[in-house]
Amino acid sequence: MLRLLLLCLLVATQATAQMPPVTSSVDALHREARADSGHALVRLQDAIPGLKLDIRYATPNNFTGKAQYAIAAAWLRQKPAQALARVQQQLATHGYALKVYDAYRPYAVTVALWRSTTAHRFVANPRKGSQHNRGIAVDITLVDMHTGAEIDMGTGYDNFTDSAHHNFKKLPALVLARRCLLKELMEQAGFNAVPNEWWHYHWRDKNYTLLNIPFETLEAVGARRR
Q: How many CB atoms lie within 10 A of CB 121?
């Protein structure tokens, strides 16, 4: 019995040691932003007026079948948010606009997503954390800038098949052209794509802390400042 207890204690200690440093304090986030204003976490609809949102993890309409966020909100660090605003402006010349599926994601949700599936190549490992947890990743699609109607991008969001990959070519030429346009503009703005998700982009500079601040806290603090 003692050996079993010691073994369980060792496993628990190792698991704790494997968890990365995570900031859960708004005050700590503000100190980080005072040192570098580009690290501030900003509400995307304030940074990009008129931006469309469809925050899937605030609804059951995601791969887990359950809402993971208490409220629908989209936040991003200031530097990538400013870059995303420029992409929105450039897309307008093509008749398109952005719609956001996800942006900053509290670290606790990444842990929940990891536990919810065995398809771990599609979700971030909590041992490292996600670029979404750093507030530098955004999941997006294109919409018609006049009607707001979603544009066909070949698959829906969080599609785990090969057809969601950037190198998948068995799609209509117009769909491939739209993916290419979005990818080119995002990369020019300072974002990187990932090979297996046409909707996901993260800021090239990854030197940002992992965050576990709930949306309700961010919205409450943001409301007091607005």
A: 8
